[in-house]
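Weekly structure sync - notes
Attendees: PM, LS, DV (DV joined late)
Agenda: review two folding runs queued last week.

Item 1: First target. Sequence and structure tokens pasted below for the record.
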Amino acid sequence: MLRAHSAGISRDDADRLAAALSGVQSISRSTAEFCDRPETPWRQTLIEFTHGYVFLVAAGEGAHLAVSTTQHVDMEAVSYRMHKLVDRLGKELTSPIRQDGPIGQDSGSRV
């Protein structure tokens, strides 16, 4: 679920992108065995397009941070700054796991 987004993106677009990127991190996480250890935690995914990139990093328990750029980007600087932002914000980026109650009852979970 979307926690925050840039001012230049509508809420609907941000929700759609958050859902898509959640799927990307899930697929990325499922490929850990290619790094010789299936239990290896996922940390970052880079998606390259003709005219830009999308960086996706782990930002705490159940949370992710995404940044899109043009093709003219210092990838090392973007990745470094994203990780520093995650370090600074810490627990504020954590999204607790939802607790589903019985069907038809409000579970009281945060969205």
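Item 2: Second target, run right after the first with the same settings.
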Amino acid sequence: MTPHTEGLCGRGRVTVFAMFGVVVGYATHHLDRRQIGDVAVVGPLTPGGEWPRLWQLARNCARTTATEEELARWILTQATRSFICGSDRVAQFQDQGWKLEPGGKRVSFDATCANRDHLWTGNLTVEGLTPKQVAQHPTRYQG
């Protein structure tokens, strides 16, 4: 696990989904032109929803002895599930701008997970979303 202090901007495929009441964005980033070493970028979009909430949800839903990498895999699995299955999907964009704010957490996987080598989490914004789309969604789990 590595904290990060710089922000990141990108443009590409973005999935927006609700998870336990919080609207979350999932985008991808490439570390170089070869598009090797893909990075999953995941962050809350709901106002007041901060990135540590993702890790709290993962901790609450994983086994008590889960490592940071296992928690990162859980977060990425939820994002991938929404992208593939449409679970709780709010919006899907093929070419949309996004911005990851400074701060957050980065995890490198020992082995590729969902075709990604890294998970970077932080507070995220996605161009073109309405306040209604990012508003808190009702949930049964209050973790």
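Discussion on item 2: The chain has a mean pLDDT of 88.
Action: LS to circulate a short write-up before next sync.
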